[in-house]
């Protein structure tokens, strides 16, 4: 499967999971990383440097999607293999979007 097709499949999977994907310009000296998964207002978001080549975008997105439970999702075998090989610490259990955790919780208003 061509790299552009793999990236398109990963982006489609992210959309089905409700994970936003954005490519933004990272300023030199400010953000030296390639990107990754973050949570914005309780929603998952993958942010990556827009200057990354397609192969690096695949790695960033596959690693981020490896954090989620993909049971019941239709994923082409080659794409699933990419996600499984990119999972950090393969012993960790994937996150389920249905169970909100502290990272997705909105901060409570402090009483005055």
Key words describing this protein structure:
112 residues; alpha+beta; Zincin-like; three-stranded mixed beta sheet; globular
Would you mind describing this structure in some detail?
The structure is a single chain. With 112 residues, the chain is an alpha+beta fold. The protein has a single domain (3-88), classed as Zincin-like, CATH 3.30.2010. The protein has helices at 3-17, 54-65, 77-86; strands at 20-24, 35-40, 43-49. The protein has a three-stranded mixed β-sheet with strand order 1-3-2, covered by helices on one side. The longest helix has 15 residues, at 3-17.
Topology:
Elements: H1 3-17, E1 20-24, E2 35-40, E3 43-49, H2 54-65, H3 77-86
Parallel strand pairs: 1-3
Antiparallel strand pairs: 2-3
Helix pairs in contact: 1-2, 2-3
Radius of gyration: 15 Å
Q: State the CATH class.
A: Alpha Beta
Indicate the proportion of strand residues.
15-25%
Question: What is the number of helical segments per DSSP (H or I, 4+ residues)?
Answer: 3
Mean pLDDT: 82
CATH topology: Zincin-like
- Tell me the number of strands: 3
Major sheet characteristics: 3 strands, mixed
Overall geometry: globular
Unreliable spans are: none
**In which range does the helix fraction lie?**
25-40%
**Architecture, according to CATH?**
2-Layer Sandwich
Provide the number of structural domains.
Answer: 1
Alpha-carbon distance between the two ends: 58 Å
Structural classification? alpha+beta
Order of helices and strands: HEEEHH
Q: What strand order characterises the main sheet?
A: 1-3-2
């Amino acid at each position: 499967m061509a790299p552009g097709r793999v990236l398109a499949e990963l982006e489609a999977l992210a959309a089905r999971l409700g994970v936003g994907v954005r490519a933004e310009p990272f300023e030199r000296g400010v953000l030296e990383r390639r990107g990754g998964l973050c949570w914005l207002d309780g929603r998952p978001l993958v942010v990556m440097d827009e200057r990354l080549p397609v192969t690096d975008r695949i790695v960033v997105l596959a690693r981020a999607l490896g954090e989620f439970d993909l049971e019941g999702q239709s994923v082409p075998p080659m794409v699933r293999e990419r996600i499984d090989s990119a999972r950090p610490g393969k012993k960790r259990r994937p996150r389920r979007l249905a169970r909100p955790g502290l990272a997705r919780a909105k901060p409570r208003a402090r009483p005055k």
